[in-house]
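Page 42, continued from yesterday. The earlier attempt failed because a stray header line got pasted into the input along with the sequence. Redoing it now with the clean sequence only.
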Amino acid sequence: MKLKDGFMLREIAGTWVVVPIGQRVVEFNGLMTLSDSGALLWKKLQSGAEVYELLDEIMKEYEIDKTTAKEDVEEFIYEIQRKGLFQQ
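This time it went through. Structure tokens are written below.
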């Protein structure tokens, strides 16, 4: 899975924010805020990580069980898909 180009992840005053740049400003109106775990997943997706890699990363970073990690990753992916931020 790979995210569309034209979005930057920035930490602003302790909050992770996804900001559209260039042409994406016209297509995606606004900003998207992420939790720390969301920012971690976003960074992995920028390099084209697959679901199993996201699961491994989140379980390792937060020391949570696979079921919880899977639910969190699926929810995150759903939101990214809903906002149309994955490349086709």
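Notes: The beta strands are 7-12, 15-20, 32-34.
Reminder to self: strip header lines before submitting.
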